[in-house]
Amino acid sequence: MRLKQVSLSAAISVVAGLTTAVVGLTGPAALADSTASLPLAHFAHMVADPAHQHLFFSQGAGSTGILVTDLSGTPVTTITDEQGATGLALSADGSTLYAALADGDAVAAVDTATLTESTRYPTGTGSAPVSVAVAGGRVWYGYETADGKGAIGSVDASGTVSTPSLSHWSVPPQLAAGGGVLAAEEPLQSLSHVATFDVSSGTATAKADTDVFGGTATGLQVTGDGATVLLAAVQQPALQVYRTSDLMRANPAPYYTGAVGPDSLAIDTDGTIASASTAGLYLYAGSNLAENHVTFPDGTTVAPDGLAWGGDGTTLYAVTRDSAGAYALDVLGSAKLTDTTLSLNWPRYAVPTQQFTFTGTLATRGFLPAGAALQVTRDGEPLPDTTVGADGTFAVSDTRQDAGTYTYQVSYAGDITHRPATADLKVYVARLSTTVVAPEIDSASPRSVVIKGTLTPELGFGSFPQGTTIDVSRIDEDTQETVQLPSVTVDPATEEFTVTDAPEAAGWFTYRLSYAGDATHEPGSDDVSLTVSAYAPALTLKAPATATRATALSFTGKLGDAPYPAGETVTVTRTDAAHTTTPATWTAPVAADGTVTVKDTPAVGGANTYTVSYPGDAAHKAATASAIVQVSRATSTVTVTTDKSTYAYGATATVTAHLGTTYNGRTVSVYATPAGGRKTLLKTGTVDSKGNLKATYKPTRSTVYTASFGGDYRYAPATATHSAATQVKIAERLGSYYTSTTYGGVTYRVYHHTVQPQVVGVVTPDKSGQCMKFQAQEYYSGAWHTIGTSSCFSMDPNSTGVTHLALTHAVNQRFRVRTEYLHSSKDTSNADTWGGWLYLTVRN
């Protein structure tokens, strides 16, 4: 049984620990200050006129007017008779709105005070201007030429229209101006043709003209310093940035718009860039540092070229379109304010009188307000401020004298670019609960009980002072008697302690381990129940490894956990070849120190196994040990022979094993082990009256033959081996002959004198790579004479050798040829072998 004490404060702390952080969020950046429906069938361009509190909206080709609203999107009027108004631009002083009239072949000038057209500048029949920009005291417009291509025209202050040759354009280009620089763009599939001009003097001077990454641009702007041109095209995954001086990519790299091509662009006077795609609205500081990502309701996106800054340094206007095609104006008054997040992390632990610290992080997009002060309160009471570090982290430390729950609040007031944020954290201050843990012990001996335990504070927090002790008592569960034992000391470094005891009795005991607690730790306890069992003595035997048969033998053994009472005995059994199922049995006394002496005179040779068994008593468990003594036996004689020293491939070998004198065993086993093969039993049996046992075997390789005698009561086992070589099988044939004949009953192959006879030899088993020789003989003077023996031919992977005979002056002569296999030092599995003779003759 195990008992534990758990304090109420510990339970509270555990509940508190289930949450690891508290986060304070600012309001979502996705919400507009206001949204107003716009009575537009189409949308082309928007211009903000903060001086007169107006917004202007053009609707492109096919429209007849320019919508005017106040800065909240409430319609004010429609400037009529503005045929196909598309591109819009304000004059430098804001007094005039210029509109490119795609259907009116003109540029209209609208008085922004009276909201009426004051002047119209014709641009030529069929010119259909689509874009307009104001720079260098002139109004620049992109229009269509008579041959259907594009060009750039301008109107000066006197109203004079001019059409300078500014690059070559296949369509009317889009225009943008800033810092005395005019930029023009036309789409080229996934590229854009872009040209820049210095127009600060009123006359255009080319700066750069090339193709860049772009496409169908719906946003083109030049920064206020005239150094950079930005291009938004849906064919590109980001907003592209180029130097106006040479149209090379500018640093920083392109502005990310959610991996979706941007279709809107606006640059505020402070360099803040707003760019929109179907993934939402993205805002960047001039350093390319991302500030905010504004999202819109599902199905709603910013219309192409639908962004404009209000000129007040804060307000951004966005024309949006929902899934039904309806247009609206979103007024974003705090788009530049970056969201901030305060995260508070739980302290390690809070206990009375001890300082604790919790940490937190202030996170934001854009520039991190490092060094900013954060206000801290505890239950509404102000505490010293803490400061945000360079990495956004901070720490708050406090000390509480009393247990309880305390609420800490950390607040960030915000600044001109960051929203405020606040986060709360509850800290539970309580004494640490402690756990006394000791493993259950299944058993212990009467003279040795050892319990190793640990004293652990809650969640591993808080250390114990030097000299901390555990109180120990032992309860006899049979008699319910309790004995107080000496206290044990806890090691403060490891939090471990050790209890040692000697109850001097067997039985069931419970050890109670108690910790009284201290100023910061709750009390704790644990119960360990265990059985004190009888000793399990070790029994060791010191028997000799060998002994002489029929000679007296004596050896000793020793039982551990002495002393032993007088009169105790052990049982000794002996198992040998003659006593495999009914061993010999006798007893031997046990001395007080546990010594046992075994005496015997073994009559049977071989392995004699002595087993000593102690039955046990009230204080000791049973024990058993065995020892093997090899008892001497006489030497027996075994031989093995074969009827031949060398065998043809597959011939039958007769193997004879001979057994000499033995006592009561006459069984022999005969084995064959072919070269490179496994040992195989050929025969096991009793030898005949002459001591012989015969077996047969068909070898295919040179073979080692083994005869084995297993031994008997008085004679030891014996083994003998004998090796016999085996030849290979050679298959031979002649090739390329044209007929056959016979001489003296022998078949001869007949060859034409121009043919070199082919001789083929095939060896079994596989001897690929081994040596084959060819020998040729000629018959004359009544006998066969050797005319040549070849050098070695290396047999191919099919274990085949091939040669051709070159016979000179051989017509009407008789010949014979044969092959020979010669084994190498790497192949000892078969003996050298000659093949049979093949006969041939030669004719004209």
TrEMBL record:
Transmembrane segments: none annotated. It comes from the Bacteria. InterPro entries: Ig-like_fold (IPR013783), Quino_amine_DH_bsu (IPR011044), WD40/YVTN_repeat-like_dom_sf (IPR015943). This is Ig-like domain repeat protein.
